[in-house]
Amino acid sequence: MSLREHALSLFRSAVGTVQPAPMLKRAVKLQGDGCPQLLVKGQAFPVKRDLYLVGFGKAVLGMAAAAEEILGDHLVRGIINVPLGIQESLQRAGMQEMLLKPHSKIQVIEGAKNNLPDPEALKGAAAIQELAEGLTVDDLLLVLISGGGSALLPAPILPILLEEKEKLTKMLASRGAAIQELNIVRKTLSLLKGGGLARLAYPAQVVSLILSDVIGDPLDIIASGPTAASSHSVQDCLQILAKYNLLHNLPKSVETVLSSSPTKPAALEDYSHVCNIIIGSNTLALDEAKRQAEGLGYATLILSTAICGEVGRIATLYCQLIRLVCLGFAGLGEGPLSYEVRGNLLQLAAELEIPGLNLAEFLQALRGVGPERPVCILAGGETTVQLQGTGKGGRNQELSLRVALGLHRAQAMEASSPPGRCEILFLSGGTDGQDGPTEAAGAFCSPELVDKALQEGLDVEAFLSNNDSYTFFSQFQGGHHLLVTGLTGTNVMDIQAILIRATDRP
Question: Among 75, 149, 254, 414, which is disulfide-ready with 250 (CB 3.0 to 4.6 Å)?
């Protein structure tokens, strides 16, 4: 099998393990008839009267289908907000298990085209709000949350209009704001985010099942934390707006809301009726990919599940790691070049401040791998792209293209003394199957890509300077390097895989 086939198989197995149905069935059971109990990861919740369900996110359709199967007649009614076109997409892909049955009690509202809030998502959010407000002390509300939930639950505090809130979010994103920062601003301006949904559902028991798409799995940030006490205040929101020079650019309505918002977050005791449980994450997906890679004979290491930072810096990190492995394969692992690369890596890691990354320990583990076995380095997280151009792309495709350029430059510099012949493949893909506003989940690359593209008259640097990675990959070799999976029905951020094998040993 080629490295590309291996990488594709690892990506598919990682995504497969965080598919909604198996994940939900592992976590949730309904027990007893007389006085039934909902068991979630060992915690029991009595179903005293009626059981309701709401949900929002890219993975929620499959989660809802599995939940309805488990809950049976105990479920009275449900409303879920899911991405536009997902039912048709899953139908076409033959993924029937992710679709609701014909006479389902759950109403499905599709919206948030290209992962942006729209009037349809607004309607769905209003319906969820109405359901939550009507609950009583004996009711149980099961809330299904996954990545993409933020765009699917728009409920701006009046007088803010959806378009105004959206314009502000877009401006922040284009200036390089991280997902955590975007969510803090969204929460502050929303009726349902930042614990709003949980407060409206009081006094009913609220149980949230969460598929995490955020680094570190913080409950108040995933889908902007509709059922979690917010750890952020209006002050945090103002600081973020100031950081990106937007404080003096705000619509009147946003100013009105910010000036009248409480300065402190709601007290924790307001959430005693809520239980938030994470049932799937990037860590789970990477662990499965590691198991598969080892089964294919790779010496496999997980770098981090918290990769974050500007896409160009992360590309440099991966290129330097690849260089280090190739030097090791050439028997130069303890030479001056390797020491230089290790130093560069440690410096870069210190600047990037990736949560929980102990690079010194990782580099030590890397010393133990040699050319006799191929190497697989896995990582996950979410990078950011600072937009300079007007092209079409996504962070995974841009990362892949930047890695290709970095590897090409490194090879050109070392042409006189190649550090061991290595076959290299890099893959970056979004587990939801959609990278930016494109049809691709991500892309593959190798060091040869830049030269081959030039032969087709495609200049990688020109495409990158216009943030036009999707156009590049679509045109290059007829789109062969694009990772196209279709919507997967799940979402645990992005996955990167580096596969390296020695081609001629000394």
Answer: 254
Give the C-alpha separation, 200 to 191, whole Å.
Answer: 9
Cα separations in angstroms, 264 against 160, 227, 243, 256: 21, 17, 20, 17
**CA–CA separation, 127 vs 40, rounded Å?**
26
Extended strands (E) in 327-448: 375-384, 422-430, 442-445
Q: CA torsion angle for 349, 354, 359, 362 (degrees, to 10)? A: -140
Beta strands in 57-127 (DSSP E): 75-83, 106-111
Q: What is the pLDDT of residues 258-309, one digit of tens each?
A: 998 877 766 666 799 999 999 999 999 999 999 999 999 999 999 999 999 9
Amino acid symbol at 328: G
Block residue for tokens 């479920």:
75
Residue located via tokens 């009595």: 46
Separation CA 141–CA 163 (nearest Å):
30
* Residue-wise pLDDT tens digits, 343-365: 999 999 999 999 999 999 999 99
368 has a pLDDT exceeding 90 = no
Token representation of residue 368 = 């133990």
Asked if residues 70 and 29 have their Cβ atoms less than 8 Å apart, the reply is yes
Q: Return all residues near 364 (Cβ < 8 A) that are at least 6 apart.
A: none
Residue 272: CB atoms within 10 Å: 9
pTM, full prediction: 0.82
Provide the token pair at 110: 């599709």
DSSP-based three-state secondary structure for 12: helix
Q: Can you read off the two tokens belonging to residue 354? A: 């990736």
483: Cβ contacts below 8 Å, ≥ 6 apart: 8, 11, 396, 427, 429, 440, 441, 442, 443, 444
HSE-up of residue 207 (Cα within 13 Å, Cβ side) = 20
What's the pLDDT band for 505 if we cut at 50, 70, 90? very low
Beta 482-483 vs 442-445: how paired, if at all? Answer: antiparallel
- Buried/exposed 322-350: b ≥16 CB within 10 Å, e otherwise: bbbbbbbbbebbeeebbeebbeebeebbe
Nearest Cα to 187, choosing from 179, 196, 178?
196
Asked, as a colleague might, if the bond just before 159 is cis with ω within 30 of 0, I would say yes
Angle at 39 between CA 32 and CA 487, to 5 degrees: 120
